[in-house]
Amino acid sequence: MDENGRQRGSRLAKVMTALVTARTIWRARGDRHPEPPERDQIDPSERTVPSNARAEKLVALLLFVAAALAFGFTAVYVIASSNNQLLGLTLGGALAVLAAACIVAGKFVVPQETHVEDRGSLLVEEQAEEVATMIEEGGEGISRRKLIAGAGGLAGVAVVTAAATPVASLGPKLSGIHDTPWHEGVRLLDDAGRPYTASEIQVGTFYTALPEGGDPEHFGAGLLVVRLAPDQIHLPAARASWAPRGILAYSKICPHAGCAISLYRYPTYGPTSLGPAFTCPCHYSTFSPGEGGRLLFGPAGRALPQLPLMIDANDFVRAAGPFHEDIGPSWWSVHRGQT
Questions:
Q1: Residue 201 falls within a domain, yes or no?
Q2: Are 165 and 219 found together in one domain?
């Protein structure tokens, strides 16, 4: 091989070496991945303030519909309280529509914000001020604030009204606690509408009486009537004339929970038996008819209201006046008419 051939071979070897070196460097750079950023450097915080007039109108409309349904519940309760299906439909519909309004508002009306921060001290003054500022800025992007606020207030009042309406059903209807059918001169009738005479009322038995000319379904219509021996009667001095010939009358409504008293205890053997008493079958409040209806036992908070009696010339038993106090379950002003 001559000199020129050796020089060409040497140059070719150098070129091949350079190519192999470049290829190795390129592969090394391509296989190397960039280092991920530190976790502390990732900050996904963002805040978007939507301005969606259509969504705002929809929220207001849903709030008005919820208010209408809630007020509708109250109306149905007053007009047709026995229609449970309609009551459930109006109240359940109001709550469902109110929930839908909250969902739409949360998704498309109020500002959407994502914020990540490390947990630090429980309360930092600067952070508290920042939170207060964020709350104040919560209305940004809402163009119909007054409309939505008014609709929300109306819906809130309606729902609270609907929730409070069933309170009227707690306990018995007390429409007759102040004014009962009993007043001076009203005769006592049995369940067949026949007036009682004093001579037919016997010792050891109790009778139920209703007012002549009065509504037998009235809360204060029912009376308990008994006749006691003179030695069993110990009324307060102001009521000495309320038991002519030993006949006494009391409200049939227990002053504990408004149940109808239907049990009467009368001694069969004096030396060992307890005295006469009325007993309420609901919670066993027990009252003494010979002592002005005094409470002997049970959860009732007061004595049984007594009705003064008189006997007319034809031997009919009549009321000598109204009850000495309001009948029915006890409350703070129940003794205001006591004599």
A1: yes
A2: no
Using a cut of 0.90, tell me whether the model's pTM lies above it: no
Q: Residues 256, 302: one domain?
A: yes
Q: Give the helix/strand (H/E) hosting 309.
A: strand 309-311
pLDDT in single tens digits along all 339 residues of the chain: 556 666 666 666 665 666 656 666 656 555 555 555 555 555 666 666 566 778 888 888 888 898 999 898 888 888 887 788 888 889 899 899 889 988 888 777 777 677 666 666 666 666 667 766 665 555 555 556 677 778 778 888 888 888 877 776 665 445 555 678 888 999 999 888 899 999 999 898 889 999 998 888 888 888 999 999 888 889 988 898 999 999 999 999 898 888 889 898 888 776 777 888 999 998 889 999 989 999 998 888 889 999 999 999 999 999 999 988 888 887 654 544 443
Which CATH number covers residue 303? 2.102.10.10
Q: 269 and 159: one domain?
A: no
Here the contacts of 225-231 (C-beta below 8 Å, separation 24 or greater) are 225/188, 225/196, 225/201, 225/249, 225/317, 226/201, 226/264, 226/276, 226/289, 227/201, 227/202, 227/203, 228/203, 228/276, 228/289, 228/290, 229/203
